[in-house]
Design a protein that fits this description.
Layout (H helix, E strand, L loop, with lengths): L18 H10 L5 E6 L1 H14 L3 E6 L16 E3 L7 H4 L6 E3 L6 H9 L14
Pfam families: Aldedh (PF00171)
GO molecular function: oxidoreductase activity, acting on the aldehyde or oxo group of donors, NAD or NADP as acceptor
Organism: Rotaria sordida
């Protein structure tokens, strides 16, 4: 797939494996300059620490979320909307990977600004399309 988009061979390598063994090896391997992973927050912190010790490689994260699998195979989950979410719930305090939306009610613009500033995560988005 990557070659079809014009990337030369070996520019992007997708490695599947468990965090303790595979993730650690990638994090500490100095010739690797950039890594992206899907993990829990706890594992993500460990990967970041090891990457910092090796060569200060750039690491990006998508943190995983549970959900009902599509057709009970692979890692694709059905889109999920959580309503009546409160500020102290774990779902608002942890980053989520997947087609998930949390709906929080608000009363004022100031409340929204306070919530946006009361997070350890940045606001960002990405889009991957077929063409």
């Amino acid at each position: 797939m990557m070659i079809q988009t014009g990337f030369p061979p070996d520019v992007v390598n997708i490695v599947l494996g468990d965090g303790p063994e595979c993730g650690y090896a990638i994090a500490v391997h100095a010739p690797i300059d950039k890594a992206a992973c899907t993990s829990s927050g706890e594992v993500g912190k460990k990967i970041q620490e090891e990457a910092t010790k090796s060569n200060l490689k750039c690491v990006t994260f998508e943190l995983e979320c549970g959900g009902e699998r599509v057709d009970n195979k692979g890692y694709f989950i059905k889109a999920t909307i959580f309503s009546d979410v409160k500020d102290d719930m774990q779902i608002t305090r942890d980053e989520i990977f997947g087609p998930v939306m949390s709906v929080l009610k608000y009363d004022s613009y100031e409340e929204i600004i306070k919530r946006a500033n009361d997070t350890t995560f940045g606001l960002g988005a990405g889009v991957i399309t077929r063409d």
